Amino acid sequence: MRSLWQRIPLAGRLSLDAAMLLSMAVLIDPRASGIAIHEWLGIIIAPVIVFHLTLNWGWVVATTKKLLGRLPTETRLNQVLDLVLFATMAIAIWSGVEISESALPAMGFPERVSFSWREIHEVSSNLSMVLVGAHAALHWKWVVRTTRRLVGLPNRRPPVPATVSADAGTP
Ligand code: HEM
Question: Would 168 be classed as within a structural domain?
């Protein structure tokens, strides 16, 4: 049976990834976007990350099973980076909610002033930005292959060693 990832059209997967990257670019500077846009975007991105993870779950499970075995360095690096990225994004979103000045008060929650949550948000969000850049760079081959397929250009397939099958269809 085809996985959820395989059933979503390529253009849809690529658009979702592009939208997430664009959202991260907007999130970098709350003063430029305005705090309300920053906060709502930060809240909306949480279920999108979970959806993105669900779509790529097959790859996560396949490579996790092989973590102790032989894996190409790039795949292993990807896994560790993805795990750290997920943790820092979760902390960035949670700490953002804790210091919310606009979205949470608009929903009726009282505004809380917390210096430590603010510091945690600053560190985790800045770290997330760096890791998102590395994440996009490490998956760039997939982005290029997919874009070429979508515009009808041929892709040259490099020979894949037999032990690397977990990497097949890597997003
Ligand atoms: C992945 C999600 C998020 C990222 C990447 C992110 C990123 C950032 C960045 C880079 C800053 C500036 C920190 C600095 O001064 O160096 C910031 C500030 C802030 N963020 Fe977020 N954020 C996210 C989610 C949220 C959420 C969900 C909320 C609230 C619901 C939020 C509320 C705030 C607030 C109140 C500030 C302080 C703005 C100020 O300086 O007055 N953020 N965020």
Answer: no
Let me know if residue 28 belongs to a domain. yes
What are the tokens at 32? 């430029």
How far apart are alpha carbons 34 and 22 in whole angstroms?
16
Predicted confidence (pLDDT) per residue in 93-139, tens digit: 999 999 999 999 999 998 888 889 999 999 999 999 999 999 889 88
- Ligand 1 neighbour 103 (Cβ under 6 A): yes
Range of 20's domain?
8-152
DSSP assigned state of 8: S
- Model pTM score: 0.81
Distance (Å, whole) CA 61 – CA 116: 35
Q: Give the total number of structural domains in the chain.
A: 1
Instruction: Count Cβ atoms below 10 Å from residue 54 Cβ, excluding itself.
Output: 12
Asked, for residue 167, whether it belongs to a domain, the answer is no
Task: State which ligand 1 atom lies nearest to the alpha carbon of 43.
Answer: 27
